[in-house]
Amino acid sequence: MKKEKLNQNSFKLDRKFLFFATHNIHKFNEAQIVLSEFNLSVGMLRVKNAEIQSDNLKEIAQSSALEIFKQYGLPILVEDSGLFVEALNGFPGPYAAYVYKTIGNRGLISLMEKIGNRKAVFKSAIVYCKSDKINPKFFEGEVTGTIALKEVRKQSVHGFGFDPIFRPKGNSKLFSEMTIAEKNFYSHRAIALRKFARWFNQSKK
Ligand code: IMP
Questions:
Q1: CA-to-CA distance for 67 and 88, rounded, in angstroms?
Q2: Rg of the Cα trace of the chain?
């Protein structure tokens, strides 16, 4: 009887435990806080970026999720995000990581030097994969905002990537000036993760 109970408990634990595959500790920290709101525990599966070339965030996340699932056989979440600047016809979009690595925040700001329209959207594609026989589940989130005139680093509480130049709509603070909890109130990633968590907690799987 005692043993049965133990097994039941460990089953419950298994059901609530997931892996978030990323090499980015900031993304993981954000995800961990959002998922804990839904009583989900998450471990970081540190993987190298193995993204396919595509201009579609969903395709990139899906292909990475299947690839990582094949390697580890664990129920995993994979996220891919992009920054779409309206005045630059959506550039850098899904190529945001490359643009960040090459020209960085200052480079992007220089590209927008004489541009008055500062509107931009951050998009997140979250994919959950627990089998290579079932289609991975997909969830998306986005946050609209503006690109700052200059990078602000000095008050940084958290922040990575484009956080020091992105201000969500209706807010006086940049992402980099917010705590993780504040950023999670607005962010593309948190929105997509909450959609996932609601689905996950309702599904019988
Ligand atoms: P990826 O999802 O890691 O491919 O992200 C694309 C690029 O956008 C990377 O340079 C990230 O640093 C950046 N990025 C993704 N999400 C965020 C965010 O929440 N804040 C700031 N930059 C981000």
A1: 32
A2: 18
CA of 11 to the centre of ligand 1 (A): 34
Per-residue pLDDT reduced to its tens digit, 169-181? 999 999 999 999 9
132 is catalytic: no
| Pick among 2.170.16.10, 3.40.1110.10, 3.40.50.2300, 3.90.950.10: CATH of 17-202 | 3.90.950.10
Compute the distance from residue 91 Cα to the ligand 1 centre, in Å: 14
| Residue minimizing CA distance to atom 11 of ligand 1 | 161
Name residues contacting ligand 1 (CB within 6 A): 24, 80-81, 83, 96-97, 100, 160-163, 175, 187, 189
Q: What pLDDT shows up at residue 3?
A: 46
Q: Return the structure tokens found at 185.
A: 């109130």
The one-letter code for the residue type at 70 is: K
Does residue 87 surpass a pLDDT of 80? yes
Q: Confidence band (pLDDT; 50, 70, 90) for 14?
A: low
CA of 131 to the centre of ligand 1 (A): 27
Residue 205 corresponds to which amino acid?
A: K
Tell me if 42 sits within 8 A of 32, measured CB to CB: yes
